[in-house]
Every structure is written in C-alpha cells, then in structure tokens.
Amino acid sequence: SRRRHTRCSGVSWARRCVQETAIIMFGREEAADTLIEQLLQEKDALLRFGSMFMMGMAYIGTGNSKILKRLLHYAVSDNSDDVRRAAVISLGFLLLKDHEQVPKIINLLGLSFNPHVRYGAALALGISCNGTLLPEAVSMLEPLLNDNIDFVRQGAFVGLSMVLHQANSTLEPKVDKLKESIKEVVQKKHEDPLCKLGAFIASGIIDIGGRNQMINLLSQTGNPKTAACVGMLLFSQFWYWFPYSLFLSLSVSPSAIIGVDKDLKIPKSFEFVSNTRSTLYEYPDPVKPINVKDQAKKEAVQLSTTARVRARANLRRGDMEIEKEAEKEKQAAEAKMEEEKEAEKAKEEEPKKEEKAFIVYNNPARILWRQARFVTYPQKNRYQPVFPERKRGYIFLNETDTGAGQAQEEYFPEYLKNTPAPPTGDTVPAPE
C-alpha cells in the first residue's frame, strides 16, 4: 500500500507540474509550440494531458484553426480518456471570444459514446458561453442533465449554471427549470454523490456573489483576463480534487457600476440610465432552501401487516365512526380547495404594475454586462465619466460643475460624508 501511495503522489505532482506549465504559457502562442510538440510525442498520457491545456492557454481566445483541428483530433482519437476530456475542455478556452461557434463545433462531441467527451463538452460550453444565455448552448446541455452517467450529469449542471447565471425568469424562463432540477437532485436520498456535488456547485454558481457578481473572463476591451482565465482552468480540475472549485472566485467580478471621484469617494448624485424594461434585469429569485417539514409530510412506506392491523381496527370501531371521519376529511379537502381558488382569484385581480421603458440608477448600482450596452450617462449630471465608453466596474468621474451654488455632496456609504481628502504630494510628511 505504501508503494501505491507513493505512485499516486507522484502522479498528483506530475499533474500539478503540467498544469503549472500550461499557466506559464498563457497567451504566448507560437512561443509555446516547441514545448507542445515535445509533449504530444510522449507516450505518457499525463504529459499529453498537459499539452491539451497548454494549447488552450497559449492560444486562448484566438480561435487558431491549426490548434482547433489538433484539439478536435485528440478529442476523438487519443486512447486516454483524460486526454480526450482535456482536449474538449480546452476548446472552450480557445474559442472564448467566438462563443457562438462553440455549440456548432462541439455539437457531435456532446453526443459522443464516450462519457468523458460528453463531460468535457458540457464544461467547454460553460466556459465559453458563460452568462450569454445562448439558446444553442442551453439546448445542448439540457439533455445531458438526464444522462445515464453520473459525472456527465455533474458537468451538465455546472455548465448550464454558468451559461444561465444572473438571469431571471423574465429574461430566460429555463432558469426556473434548472433550479427545480437542482432541488430534486439534492432532495433525493440515494442520488449519485458526483451528481449531487454538481448540483451543489451549480446552486452556488446560480447565486454567485449574492447575485451581485458574474463570471467574467474577458476585459471590457475584449482581451482575456489572466487571473480570471487561470482561475477557470484550475476550477475545471475539481474532477481530481474538489477544493479546486474554490478557484472559481478568481473568475468573478462585480456586476455593478461604481463611480468614484478624484478622492476615490462614491458620490450619490451621479446617475445613469438603462434604456431597457425594468423587469428584464431585476434580481433573480434565489435557489430556495429545502423545507424539512414538507419532506416529513410525505407518506411513509406502509407494510402489508400495518394495513391489515388498521383494517381490523376499523372493523371493531363500526361503520358509523368510519363514515364520520371520511366526511370530515372530505370537508377539509373541499375547504382547502376553496381557499386556493380564492387566493388565485385575488392574485389575478391585483392591479399589474406599469412596466417602465427605462430605469434610472443612483451610484452605485447593479448592472450586468448584458445590460451595459443599454446604459447612457445624462448630460445634466454634476459628475461625468472620464471615459464615457466604460459601462461596467469602476468609473472615474470628473466634477464638471463646481460652482458655489452647488449643494454639499453626499457620499456612499454615509461615513465617508465628512472624511477628509487624502494628502496631496506637497503636504505628505517627510519620513523620520
């Protein structure tokens, strides 16, 4: 057993080394070709496994046709399941900027006879199409939720939650269906542990950052963010060790606009407008916790002997008492149905709130990257953004009207209201 433990430790260390090498080659493109070629010629599957991620990291977001053909070749022809899975996952990194093409390219891989390839296809869709609500990606991932292999269902839960996270039921009705599927899997007593783990991770991704953050692998200029992409690569390795899932936190960023002035304070008077319907980008409903009382109300399995004992007791009690109890149960059921009908009728009669065609936000506010293209900055603002093209994250503001008639600015949070400004370069005390 000691020899086996030593061998397992060696494999683990080797896997970490090839992952680290893939990270080192991030964005190096042709500079990584020599090492990639050397590893591809190796007989050890572990080294070929590392070369798959190396290609994905070195050519991340480029969509290079040569690397695309090579990854597809190894995804269907290599004799190692680990290498096949890594090749398909790397397709998600390679096509990061061209997510609409990913479902078309890996459509057949999602139907592969090999479950490792199907798992890789689910994660590749989640990585490249994260937060896009792409219908083609959703339609590919939904059948995998009912796959007959447990770890394929795990990958489908994770991938679909990445595609649909931060969407409400108005924007994408299938979000509610995914939440129901997560709830069913978690409630099942004899569900496969791997599938259950996928459901737990999916539940966290759906409500990531308290529904105030989004998975964001690209900067506002469209370039891959190093820390975010590395975090996603390491997150995909939770297949081997589940604490790797914590690296997903490197890939998320606040889904907000936070305007700051020259003193790095957050003025409340800064406003911006989202020219979209108010219900489209509201907070999604959280994943509801499991109600233990509802589970306790479910009927327990009755043995045949128990049923016979109850039948004998009913014979002793007499027909009159049995009829009275049946009548009481019938009346209670009818009363409950009437209450439900009245509640539904009252809900229908409630006046519907008028939906606005635009929303005015105060600084700071939650803005999704899907919503950012509809954001405009009114000219009447006391503060104007230094870079008007920026519609997400921290926005540097320039105070355009500093007249004496201006009211005292209020800041968020309140304790910053009377905080003195930081010292300028002329007033910094000399070191002792």
SSE order, one letter for each helix or strand: HHHHHHHHHHHHEHEEEEHHHEEEEEE
Let me know the average pLDDT: 81
* Helical stretch tally: 16
Ranges where pLDDT stays below 50 over 5 or more residues in a row are: 1-8, 424-428
Quick one: overall form?
flat
Total number of beta strands: 11
Explain what this protein looks like in three dimensions:
The strands form 4 sheets. Strands 7-3-10-9 form a 4-stranded mixed beta sheet, with no helix packed on it. The chain has a 3-stranded antiparallel beta sheet with strand order 6-5-8, with no helix packed on it. The protein is of the alpha+beta class. The relative contact order is 0.08. It is flat, with a radius of gyration of 29 Å. The protein starts with a helix and ends in a 20-residue tail after the last strand. 48% of the residues lie in helices and 9% in strands.
Summarize the structure.
The protein has 432 residues and is of the alpha+beta class.
Q: What descriptive keywords fit this protein?
A:
single chain; 432 residues; alpha+beta; 16 helices; 48% helix; flat; disordered N terminus
Summarize the helices and strands and which ones pair or pack.
Layout: H1 2-24, H2 33-40, H3 45-58, H4 65-77, H5 81-94, H6 102-105, H7 115-128, H8 135-144, H9 150-164, H10 174-187, H11 193-206, H12 208-211, E1 213-215, H13 226-235, E2 252-254, E3 256-260, E4 266-267, E5 271-274, H14 292-297, H15 304-317, H16 319-349, E6 359-362, E7 365-366, E8 375-376, E9 383-385, E10 393-399, E11 411-412
Parallel strand pairs: 3-10
Antiparallel strand pairs: 1-2, 3-7, 4-11, 5-6, 5-8, 9-10
Helix pairs in contact: 1-3, 2-3, 3-5, 4-5, 5-7, 7-8, 7-9, 8-9, 9-10, 9-11, 10-11
